[in-house]
Specification:
The protein has 465 residues and is an alpha+beta fold. It has four domains: 95 residues, Trypsin-like serine proteases (Thrombin, subunit H, Beta Barrel); 102 residues, Beta Barrel (Thrombin, subunit H), CATH 2.40.10.10; 94 residues, Pdz3 Domain (Roll), CATH 2.30.42.10; 94 residues, PDZ domain (Pdz3 Domain). The longest helix is centred in the N-terminal third of the chain and has 19 residues. The termini are far apart.
Length: 465
Amino acid sequence: MRRLTVCTLWALQAAILAVTMLPGTARAKELAPDFVELAKKLKPSVVNIGTAKTVKPRRQFQRPFGTPFGNDPFQEFFDRYFDDMHPQGYKQRSLGSGFIIEGGYILTNNHVVAGADEIKVKLADNREFKAEIKGVDERLDLALLKIDAKEPLPAAKLGDSDTIQVGEWVMAIGNPFGLAETVTAGIVSAKGRVIGSGPYDDYIQTDASINPGNSGGPLFNTRGEVIGINTAIVSGGQGIGFAIPVNMANAIIPQLKEKGKVTRGWLGVSIQPVTPDLANSFGLRSEKGALVSGIIPESPAEKGGVKAGDIILEFDGKKIQETSELSRMVAATPVGKKVALTVMRDGTEKKVTVVIERLKENGGDDGVEATQDKLGLTVKELNKDLAERLQLKETTGVVVFGLKSDGAAQEAGIAEGDIIKEIDGRAIATLKDYEKAVAAHKKGKIIRFLLKRGDSSLYLAATLD
């Protein structure tokens, strides 16, 4: 009887496994979506974008000689003659993708249409329309276009990119290499990717094949919702593409429609990640938050009482896990809003309130004593003459003149030319201040620096060998 029961269980498990692997079952659909039906349903909302801009060619002819006096009486004639040979220049054409969101509005990348004299949109049914740019956001690389189709158009449904998970199936539709209505599929490979394109990097990484021409096209989930705008690829790489999360686009679409541009919030701080060593030096249990390394004068942060050395743990009630999150939160905050910040200062959590403002659109032997220490640093005390020779704005403090190649300072990231402003929160104005601060630390202990590097401030932590 016991053997029968075990056998029966094995048979039941095998049957369940076989059923879940059968095509057409709910489990099979979850593992492998019906891309055929998805493609049929979604392709009408995706468009091809063709642009043209006039490029005036560089003159390829030069006068073989001129006058030794710099004023050539024949130069004007020469310039006019060769300019008249190509009075209109030539048309430079490019292709991209986009998708209809509502009422003739089309979302795409800014780099697809930037500088274009002419924009044409081709629908899936081969109809073509001239498009006008209603708004652009260069920081997010997004553009909103408008066409007049005189009738309702099939619009893509915008999903919630915050809910996607690594490993989910996704599908891209676009115009790679000019090959219209190309469908590719893959999975979400990673979230929150920072690729160095700007302060608001938060890309979805996917292995769905993306190529030149896919830019501006949609990345769909298995429910047929747009969760990203395909934007970038790794040069020379395969199977790695990046999409702007649709929630970031959704937040600025109303401003693009109404104003043609985006107004962002501004806090006025320089921030950096909290490394394990820095967290230890500040007495933190984790590396969460954004470390304030500098405050811009007259900024909302300074007016609200934020200080260099504060670690911002929460912004407007939202916890800061990664440093880059703070930039995005501030940017999305309405101008004039009062926001509560939770900061860690001197080992204690404090609350400060700031009023967010608008981010504006487009920071040898000289008779000075030197010393080398157990950190592997050679430093000198600044004076006016040395500061002028080094082209430094600061005239007081201690400047890094050299580093030992295998020293703790170099390993921590300290560089020549850095001005040491603080050590463990204590101001460093003279060489004596510096030597006293370093001498107070024993082997194996962490020492925290506040440095001035160019126009920026920076915290670094080093461990004494």
